[in-house]
Design brief:
Keywords: DNA-binding, Transcription, Transcription regulation. The protein is of the alpha/beta class and 299 residues long. It contains 11 helices and 12 strands. Helix 2 packs across helix 3.
Amino acid sequence: MENELDWNDLKFFLAVARGGGLTPAAQVLGTSASTVSRHVDALEARLGVRLFMRQQRGYLLTDEGSALFGQVAEVERATQAVERQRGGLGDAVSGLIKVATSETLGNHLLAPNLAGFAARHPRAQVELVVSRHLADLSRREADLALRMMEPDAPVIGTDYIAHALGKVYFGLYAAPALLSAHPDWRTMPYMTWDESWAHYSMGNWLVGQFGGREPLLRANNLQAQYAAARSGLGLVMLPRFLGDADPLLRPVPGTPVPAGRDLWLVYHRDLKASRRVQAMRRYIGELVARLAGAARPGP
């Protein structure tokens, strides 16, 4: 029928309502603002109502839009729950498993060690979602999330299951030539995180060890610091599973021991019975216990 609702239009409507405008919605959906606008206009034409107030500060829902948002969001949640549960059907571990994690854990812990999972479960495929931002598991941005968290930080809501894998321990490292040139580590140049990580307790701790002396390098990710340290630029704080395994770096003797970070594996409750997700959960738990210096294995 000509006036029948198109689910594609509804998806665009949800994105605009959540983002507050055409451009944020386009970024989430991977399309252009004009395409988003066209779908929203088409939906309003089909329904014969105005769903948004177009203002300079963004798109605001009208009363009709708010009512529709509640109904469509509920349908979206139900659809996503069915899709998540579908991944657990059948006896074999097969299908795509999306794992979200940070750059450090993704590049240096998971990616180099996925061959064992592939050998154990040849019918499964893995997608790594590597980002400093936490994936939204309820919207299927990932099936599982491996997260390093500040001690005692809140991890989950009631819709999620979280397994504590222990702690990732850190140490201070430098290139051998730098160690030889600075018998006292307190005189070494060092590197740490930039102002976007001002909330990061370990970065603040490191600056404090140097009496507030400014670092030679600030960077918004650990990969840049790691690469600079390998070239001999300065001292760096790294997870032990990374620093201990690198032949171009040495632990800096006589330094205080940084606090570790809590490591959690999180997934949606709808995936509790999913064979593919539980297989990956067990594998990551084994991997962490073997390589990351976890204080205790996951359940």
